[in-house]
């Protein structure tokens, strides 16, 4: 049986990846900070799908915890066939904030850890000449709306660069760029999302099914759903001043939302 390691695998998009991969018969290694929730999720998936689910409690903002997850990815006695780098959170602090801790944590979890774990998985997978690395980025990386946009732009570019580096090795690398997804991600960040039209919201399970179909086809960039494919294509072709104007407009509307 194949094995997938999913960070942030107990909620939101990560949990949807875990469910979808479990249905496909993958054994799982779930990584998250909440031990109780990890154990509950593992028990439910294991019972429902008859798979083995291993858990790793880790905070990916802590270097030692990232090192432990990297070691698990490179363990030759228990190969990991697919890595899904999903763990993340919204960074709302402005660049001018005196307290820079949100920015540091965001970079540690969504840039440094993603790069470190992708590299560890790539080393192990290239030895076997097979494997998949899936990095959950965002369409936010196509606009200019603060630290989160910058982080996700990095994630997408890093993933493409890794795909170039691993070309011909048998290891496939995909960046998934979701749009607005109905999960607890936004409520945790205090984002109501009331300014977002209903048709822009995506279902996490549908998003993951489309993403895994793209992974199976060997696509390096996966933008689930036609509406977001059109939006991302338009943003790539618009002049940068126009993208910044759009970003200011969206930021202004969102700033007037009630708190979640």
TrEMBL record:
<comment type="similarity">
    <text>Belongs to the short-chain dehydrogenases/reductases (SDR) family.</text>
</comment>
<dbReference type="InterPro" id="IPR002347">
    <property type="entry name" value="SDR_fam"/>
</dbReference>
<keyword id="KW-0560">Oxidoreductase</keyword>
<dbReference type="Pfam" id="PF00106">
    <property type="entry name" value="adh_short"/>
</dbReference>
<dbReference type="InterPro" id="IPR036291">
    <property type="entry name" value="NAD(P)-bd_dom_sf"/>
</dbReference>
<protein>
    <submittedName>
        <fullName>Short-chain dehydrogenase</fullName>
    </submittedName>
</protein>
<dbReference type="GO" id="GO:0016491">
    <property type="term" value="F:oxidoreductase activity"/>
</dbReference>
């Amino acid at each position: 049986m194949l094995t997938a390691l999913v960070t942030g695998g107990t909620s939101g998009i990560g949990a949807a990846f875990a469910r979808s991969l479990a249905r496909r018969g993958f054994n799982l290694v779930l990584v998250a900070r909440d031990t109780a929730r990890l154990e509950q999720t593992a028990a439910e998936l294991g019972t429902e799908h008859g798979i083995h689910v291993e858990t790793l409690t880790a905070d990916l903002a802590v270097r030692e915890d990232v090192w432990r997850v990297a070691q698990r990815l490179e363990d030759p006695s228990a190969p990991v066939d697919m890595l899904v780098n999903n763990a993340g959170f919204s960074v709302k602090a402005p660049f001018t904030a005196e307290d820079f801790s949100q920015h540091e944590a965001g970079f540690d979890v969504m840039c440094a850890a993603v790069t470190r774990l992708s590299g560890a998985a790539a080393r192990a997978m290239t030895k076997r000449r097979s494997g998949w690395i899936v990095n959950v980025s965002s369409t936010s990386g196509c606009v200019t709306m603060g630290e989160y946009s910058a982080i996700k732009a990095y994630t997408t570019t890093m993933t493409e660069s890794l795909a170039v580096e691993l070309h011909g090795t048998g290891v496939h690398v995909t960046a998934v760029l979701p749009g607005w997804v109905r999960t607890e991600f936004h409520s945790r960040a205090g984002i109501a999302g009331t300014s977002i039209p209903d048709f822009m919201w995506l279902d996490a399970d549908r998003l993951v099914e489309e993403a895994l179909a793209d992974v199976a086809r060997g696509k390096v960039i996966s933008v689930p759903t036609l509406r977001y494919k059109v939006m991302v294509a338009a943003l790539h072709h618009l002049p940068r001043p126009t993208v910044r104007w759009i970003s200011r407009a969206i930021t202004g509307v969102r700033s007037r939302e009630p708190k979640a």
